Amino acid sequence: MSPVEIACDESGSEGENLVGGETDVFAHAGVRLTLGEAEACVREIRARIGSPAEEYKANHLLRAKHRPVLEWLLDPAGPLAGRGHVHLTDKTFFAVRAAVTLLAAHGTEELARTLHRAGPAAFGADRWAYFLAAFTSVLRLKPRRGVTTSPPEFFALARELAAVPGEAGEIMGRLCDGGERVAAYRTRLASDPGLVPVLDPLVPAVIHTVRHFSAGGTPVALVHDEQLALTGERVLQLKATLGHRLAGVRFVDSRSDARVQVADFLAGVARRIASDELNGHGDARLTGLLRAFVDTGSVWNHPG
Questions:
Q1: Stretch 253-263: mean pLDDT, rounded?
Q2: Is 248 helix (H, G, I), strand (E, B) or coil?
Q3: Which is it for strands 246-252 and 220-225: parallel, antiparallel or unpaired?
Q4: Helices and strands, number each (H, E), in the chain
Q5: pLDDT in tens, 125-184
Q6: Which of 100, 174, 287, 301 is deepest in the core (most CB within 10 A)?
Q7: 37: left (phi over 0), alpha (psi -120 to 50) or beta
Q8: pLDDT tens, 179-228?
């Protein structure tokens, strides 16, 4: 069976910098369009917006004066209906889930959801943010910015928070015995260039994208915007994980492939809409339109 090409791009990528960065949501989008269909979509967007810019980005669509164009793109009768897919990641919840999964002996999704919900009130917003920054630091061999914490310092902090009464403190207590697991992970990270960092949301999002578009049995060949995080070793790991579902990965400059440019539009507007919703000032109309594209396996712990 011949594979179908799916064009992909992302928005909000800051690698393993999950907290304290420029963005709080990571969005990965895939579109199933022919080159001709994508070129027609881009031409229509250009005609409707009328900007002289050489390259259009999602920000053009997100301007208030271009709201009708954005609604057209996401509409159930629009050019992406049934052809677009978005995987969303709330970066903070992704970090909490990684902490619970890695550090607790029997960490579960439900424990992560509870800690994510209760942590800020139980420990204080600043202390909670510092804990998450410390966790992301301790899992990176060479932290480039922000909090820099050694494993002993991190677990001393976790023990302090575990003394706080309530369910958040109880869950934190279950994380305090994860020292050996952190040491083992850091050792693997140093020796295996193909190991997918537990703090990087890109590879899990790509896996969800491939599974979505290959659900009918047709293998997928990804045409992806150039992405340094998808190294040769990680592409091999993707193929090992996905088997026959993934026929290959090819990288292009989004400016040279209209399909990838449309995926860039979808990822960018999805990230902004989701971020607004996350921060309590979402647009009900846009959130409703986006919902049709969002993967049910998105890393999200919020209503809406």
A1: 92
A2: strand
A3: parallel
A4: 13, 5
A5: 999 999 999 999 898 877 666 667 889 999 999 999 999 999 999 999 999 999 999 999
A6: 100
A7: alpha
A8: 999 999 999 988 887 788 899 999 999 999 999 999 999 999 999 999 88
How far is 284 from 236, CA to CA, in rounded Å? 40
Query: DSSP code of 102?
Result: H
> Is 3.30.565.10 the CATH number for 4-89+198-291?
no
Instruction: Determine if the pTM surpasses 0.90.
Output: yes
Task: Show Cβ contacts of residue 73 under 8 Å, excluding neighbours closer than 6 positions.
Answer: 41, 45, 61, 79, 80, 265, 266, 269
pLDDT > 80? residue 29: yes
CA atoms of 23 and 16, how far apart (whole Å): 12
* CA distance linking residue 69 with residue 78, whole number of Å: 10
Q: List C-alpha distances in Å: 278 to 34, 86, 90, 104.
A: 33, 16, 8, 27
Q: Which residues of 190-220 are buried (b: 16+ CB within 10 A; e: fewer)?
A: eeeeeebbbbbbbbbbbbbbbbbbbeeeebb
Spatial separation of the C-alpha atoms in residues 6 and 138, rounded to whole Å: 36
Q: What is the DSSP letter of 196?
A: P
H-run or E-run covering 222: strand 220-225
Structural domain spans, the chain: 4-89+198-291, 91-191
Which residues pair with residue 224 across a beta bridge? 8, 251
Nearest to 205 by CA among 18, 9, 6: 9
CB-count exposure of residue 42 (10 Å: 0-12, 13-18, 19+): middle
3-class DSSP assignment, residue 145: coil
**For residue 231, which amino acid is it?**
T
**In whole angstroms, what is the distance from residue 133 CA to residue 148 CA?**
8
Q: Is the separation of the CB atoms in 31 and 74 below 8 Å?
A: no
